[in-house]
Amino acid sequence: MVPATPSLIDGPSGLTAEASDDAVLAAIKLIRQAEGTVYAYDLIPVLWGSTPDDAPGITRYETQILATINRWGAELILPDTTRVTHRPGMSEYVTNIALRPVIDALVFEDASEFRIHPTAISAADQADGQVQLWRKMDPARLAELRELGPGQAEERLLAAKDRFLTVAGEPLNLNKPTDQRIADSVIWPEPGSPLVLNLSDCYFEDFDLARVLGLLGSRAVSCYEGGGLAIDACRAVFSGQRTSFSPPPGSKVTMPRAELEGAVFDSPEVCFDHLEFAAGAADRRRTQTSLLNLRDSTFTARVGRASFEQCKFTGGGLSLEDASVVGCQISFDNTQFVACHLFFYQLIAGEQSKFTFVGSRFEESVVDFSDSSVPSLLFYDVRDMPQCDFTFRRCGALAMENCSLGNPIKLASVRRLSLAGSHLSGVLLHIRDGSGGSRRSNRRARKNWFLDALEDGERSSLADELAAVKEVFHGMGEYELEDEAFIRHMRRVPRSKAMWLVVRLLDALGRFGTSPSRVAVCLALTVVLFFFVNAGLLALVPDGFVGLLGGSVWADSALLTWASFVQAGTIVEPISAWTIGVSLFQTTAGWFFLGYFFVAFTRKTLR
User: Fold this and answer.
1) Measured in Å, how far apart are the chain's first and last C-alpha atoms?
2) Which of 66, 161, 347, 488 would bridge with 372, disulfide CB 3.0–4.6 Å?
3) Pick from 377, 408, 443, 345: which is nearest to 82 by CA?
4) Which residues is 255 bridged to in the sheet?
């Protein structure tokens, strides 16, 4: 990207498009730290100090925002293509994930705030409970950063890149507290307030929450059963063979919050099972309250399984925004979500990763995987699927099987889809156009990726799935997709070998007849072909017709072709064997094309 030269644009409030470097950094930091996207309307005051008074002014400034915040030559900030709105001031912006380390180095003064996602870690014990931690980075990510050269960025951006690479390559010194030291450092709360465990910026091996709570004695039981238990473990590192946040056997632990932003998990097993997360009465009014905040966290290559099974989330959110999962299975099986927002925005998961929701229950909840990269996502035996945003950046396989789908679902960039055994009554499927679709291609062709994904894989229930989505599209008024789904359904209905040829023929005719424009084009091409055929007949068999105008061969051929297609036999009458045979063939073709065209046109018009 060529560095932008700030230009002056007088807005309705006398604003200009010139912004200081400090304002640009503040805008980039706002986008980086916000949950999800940031709107143009929110960026304008940060960049220029005030907001235009009317919508047209905002629209004019939208065209300058990207040039201003990317003024150092690299595409640090991008428009969010997963949730685009068209209202003035509502354009949405996100950070470029490929350059996020550079963004962190630009906007964070403290190196401890850098969001470094290692693929592996190694630690060496030091004296006085200290650990020296080395982080192994993804070679591909480091290569992308090192290739950011003078031709792509100015000095400020290159300095940020070098600063990040330096920090990532240096060891990180962390405290390594024992369970007893954690217990001794607890500050006992007032009655009704949560007991807080501060684990931030520490290194743990085989961390076990139940063991720590056991060291606190009976007083702790009354505390976390009364006001709950809160955990602050931002940027903590959990290694060893197993990391467990599960409660002691036979006890109930309610957490009003668990802050693990930027945490690194390096245990083969990570367990949050049987916890109950519930916001306080005052917090329940704030819909964005994170009960469990795992934003920017990392699950390294050693993690084989992370489980949140049989948990309960009430009145808040679960966030894995910007998290990095190298290759583990993350399970939310048999978990209950009540008035909860599950936020997986821009999560990046490796090829071997899998997310499962088996037997989970949702009440008034929302699941958001927009702009995330997930190889495999399974919802199985979910009684009522919540409102879902599945506008992935990339999803290898999405399965919603044996589920009841009734809430709106947005879909994009899914390679393989399964709806086996699911009830789709009342669901709204909002399908984004395929990214590879041309703007000139018809709307149905741009959305056919959804049916392609549904057909990717052999399942005995595929014909039923296609029939179900056909009815969904009919109810939504997506009639082109309804036609396509019905044709594919008919292909999949089990039939005998003897019927195969007939079915294929009917399939071809059915697909042909769903588009009046396609029938009209074929009709026009056939008329042109017959025009030249008739001209040849008139030249070779001049006495084969009666009732012609007697003019030129081309004029007579035009009249003959028109008469044949509209069955006007009294105008032009063939009298020889050759001309009668050709006329019958043309008349049959005319009946076929005109009949197909008028049926398709009438159907299209009525719909």
Assistant:
1) 46
2) 347
3) 345
4) 277
The answer to whether the CB of 215 falls within 8 A of the CB of 183 is yes
Is 405 in a helix, a strand, or coil?
A: strand
Of 234-238, 449-453, 585-589, minimum mean pLDDT range: 585-589
Structure tokens at 68: 């201003």
Q: Please name the helix (run of DSSP H) or strand (run of DSSP E) that holds residue 517, with its range, or none.
A: helix 516-540
Residue 80 token pair: 């969010």
- What pLDDT band is residue 567 in, cutting at 50, 70 and 90? low
How large a percentage of the chain has pLDDT more than 90? Answer: 38
Determine the Cα–Cα distance for residues 397 and 413; give it in Å rounded to an integer.
10
Residue 381: closest CA among 421, 331, 338: 421
Residue 65 CA, distance from chain mean position: 24
Write down the pLDDT at residue 607.
63
* Predicted confidence (pLDDT) at residue 511 exceeds the cutoff of 70: no
- DSSP per-residue letters across 308-332: -TT-EEESSEEE-TT-EESS-EEE-
Q: Which tops the pLDDT comparison, 195 or 328?
A: 328
Q: Note whether 473 and 424 are within 8 A (CB).
A: no
Residue 347 has what pLDDT? 94
Residue 605, C-beta contacts closer than 8 angstroms, at least 6 positions apart: none
The secondary structure of 192-254 as a DSSP string is: TSPEEEE-TTBEEES-BHHHHHHHH-HHHHHHHHHT-EEEE-TT-EEESSEEE-PPPTT---E
What are 480-492's pLDDT values in tens digits? 888 888 888 887 8
Which amino acid is it at 328?
Answer: C
Strand residues in 465-513 grouped as ranges (E): none
Report which residue type is found at 498: A
Nearest to 189 by CA among 218, 161, 160, 230: 230
- 387's enclosing H/E stretch is strand 387-401
